[in-house]
Amino acid sequence: MLPVLLTILVIIMLLGGLLAVEHKSLLIGVISAGLVSLTASIIYVILAAPDVAMTEAAIGSGLSTVMFLYVLRRIKGDSNA
Amino acid sequence: MLKKLFALILIGGLGLIFFQLYNQRSRREGLTKTASYYTEKGPAETRSANIVTSVVVTYRGLDTLGEVTILFAAASIIGFFLKRSEKGSKDKTIRNQSSELLQTGSMLLVPLIFLLGIYVFVNGHLSPGGGFQGGAIIASGTVLAFLANPSFEGGRTLIHILESLSGMFYVGIGVAGIFLAAGFLDNRIFPTGNVGSFISAGAIPVIYSIIGLKVGAELSAILYSLRDTKEQQ
């Protein structure tokens, strides 16, 4: 059961990474980069490393995603005005 | 075309390295010497319910101090290079307003996010998480406040005070360990209490709270200086 679950999660991670690199829209790119971190933190929880999972969730998928979104908003703010 | 080929070769090489690592790994029976010391003696010596915390704050406390110092250096360098927009020019480049939904939602959520961050680092010795995680949660609360209200100004002085004081207290507690207990950053300068109760593990909750405040203040300061950079036209 565990290997199957891990394989599914890793495939989601790979797809998220590909989407982050390849997609034209920056917004979708940022969100799929966050998805990679979120899946990684789920994997850490399954592998019994809750402390690492928490760091990954807080910094990888929380802080850096929101920060990228904030920067995106600032970059686009001028052109959309 | 050539660029893509180069990238492909690079990815292939990385894959080969990881494949080699995967192939050579062997299932380890039991823990290494250091790891077994931490797991066997850790709870008895530090009285911390979370072994990871006892390693991060006490046994490898010096490394944590180094990490916090690196973060401080990064924050200072970012603050140095990103110049603040001149105070004279009052026209703070009319930033477009956020949606009503975000503004109202953030008023409810930001204090709760701060509270969660504080909960995470105050309970670092009992549950997963600790200073770095709690600090990052606090900083994401700050980003939310910025997203909702671009000219948010609250707590700038508080951040600077926390940033300076918490670093000093961290080193101060470490030095107190030399005189009152076994060595630098030893947690037994306060009574250690029982494993699992809130007031236990000696100085660990105190140090982790200081780290949490420091990380939160540091990351928030970075966000402030990112926000205040002069807008390039």
What does this structure look like?
- Chain A is mainly alpha-helical and 81 residues long.
- Chain A has one domain (2-80).
- Chain A has helices at 2-22, 26-46, 50-80.
- In chain A, helix 1 packs antiparallel against helix 2 (26-46) and helix 2 packs antiparallel against helix 3 (50-80).
- The longest helix of chain A is centred in the C-terminal third of the chain and has 31 residues, at 50-80.
- Chain B contains 8 helices and no strands.
- The mean pLDDT of chain B is 80.
- Chain B is globular.
- Chain B has one domain (41-83, 101-227).
- The interface between A and B is medium-sized, with 19 and 24 residues.
Question: What is the compact description of this entry?
Answer:
The complex is a heterodimer of chains A (81) and B (233). Chain A is mostly helical and 81 residues long.
List keywords for this structure.
heterodimer; A: 81 residues; mainly alpha; 90% helix; B: 233 residues; 67% helix; globular
Describe the largest sheet of chain B: none
Number of strands of chain B: 0
Quickly count the domains of chain A: 1
Mean pLDDT of chain A: 85
Q: Kindly provide the radius of gyration of chain A, computed on alpha-carbon positions and rounded to a whole number of angstroms.
A: 15 Å
Q: Uncertain spans of chain B, ≥5 residues at pLDDT below 50?
A: none
Series of secondary-structure elements of chain A, N-terminal to C-terminal: HHH
Strand fraction of chain A: under 5%
Helix content of chain A: over 70%
Q: Span between N and C termini of chain A?
A: 52 Å
Helix content of chain B: 55-70%
Structural class call of chain A reads: mainly alpha
Domain module tally of chain B: 1
Largest interface: A-B, 19 and 24 residues
Q: Can you summarize the main beta sheet of chain A?
A: none
General shape of chain A: flat
Number of beta-strand segments of chain A = 0
Through-space gap between termini of chain B: 34 Å
